[in-house]
Amino acid sequence: MGATKLSGMQKQVLSLYRGFLRAARSKQTTEDRRRIETIVSTEFRKNSKEVDRKNFQYIEYLLRLGHKQLDQLKSPDMVSISSVKIN
Amino acid sequence: MASLSATSLSFKAPSIQSTRIYQVLRKPSSFQSISFGRFQSSKSLRLQISCAAKPETVQKVSDIVKEQLALSADTALTAESKFSALGADSLDTVEIVMALEEKFNISVEEADAQNITTIQEAADLIEDLVQKKPAA
C-alpha cells in the first residue's frame, strides 16, 4: 500500500493512543470525556513534536508511563483528569 | 445529499497482494451491490471494482473525516481522498477511526485500523463490519 510503513514503536504509540480514547469514551459525562480527550491528544502531539524520534529509551519510558496512566484512567473510580499548567 | 453515484470503477496500479473476493448482499435497502475486493489479474494492471460501499456510507465517512480534521464544509472530498493528503497524521487517523467506530457502532480491529488510508477503504471496511454484526 502507498501508506508509510509504521515502525513497531509507532504502532505501540498509536495503540496506546487508541486505548486512551477508548478509556475516555467509557467516562460518564461528555464534559469529562472531552476534557480527557483534549489532554490526551495535547500530550501525544506535544511529545510527537518534541521528542527526538531516535530517542528510543525515552520513548520506551513514555510508553511505560502512558500504560500506567491508562490503567489508572480505566478504573471506573477515576472520573476525570485535569491538567494544570504552571508558567 | 446532492448527487451521488452508485457505482464506481477505478483502475489501480498493482499495490496490494490480497486476492480476497467478497460478496456483499444487502437486504431491502436501496441498492444491491456486489463487490469484488481487489482481484488479481495476471497482467501488471489490476482491476478494482468498488461499488461496495453505499454512497450514503461514503458520504457519512466524508462528513466525519471533515469534522475530525476541522476542514471547511465545502472542501471537496472524494472516495479516493487520502487522509494523509488532507493533512492528517497518524494520530488523526486513529481519531478518525475511533469516531467512525462510534458513529457506526462497530469495533475495528487494530490491524485493520492501521491499513485504512482513504475514505473508500474506510467505507468498505465499515460496510463489511456492519454486515457481519447482526450475525454475531
Describe this structure in a few short sentences.
With 87 residues, chain A is mainly α. Chain A is 67% helix and 0% strand. Chain A has one domain (8-74).
- Sheet with most strands: strand arrangement of chain B: 1-3-2
Number of helices of chain B: 4
Helical fraction of chain A equals 55-70%
Computed structural class of chain B: mainly alpha
Alpha-carbon distance between the termini of chain B? 32 Å
How far is it from the N-terminal to the C-terminal residue of chain A, by CA? Answer: 45 Å
Rg over CA atoms of chain A: 14 Å
Strand % of chain A is under 5%
Mean pLDDT of chain B: 69
Written as H for each helix and E for each strand, in order along the chain, the element string of chain B is EEEHHHH
Strand residues, percent of chain B: 5-15%
Tally of DSSP helical segments of chain A: 3
**Which CATH class of chain B applies here?**
Mainly Alpha
Give, in order, the helices and strands of chain A.
HHH
| Total beta strands of chain B | 3
- Which CATH architecture of chain B? Orthogonal Bundle
Low-confidence stretches of chain B: 3-12, 15-35, 39-50
- Estimated radius of gyration of chain B: 15 Å
Structural class of chain A: mainly alpha
Tell me the number of structural domains of chain B. 1
Function (chain B): Carrier of the growing fatty acid chain in fatty acid biosynthesis.
Pfam family, one (chain B): PP-binding
GO cellular component, one term (chain B): chloroplast
Family (chain B): Belongs to the acyl carrier protein (ACP) family.
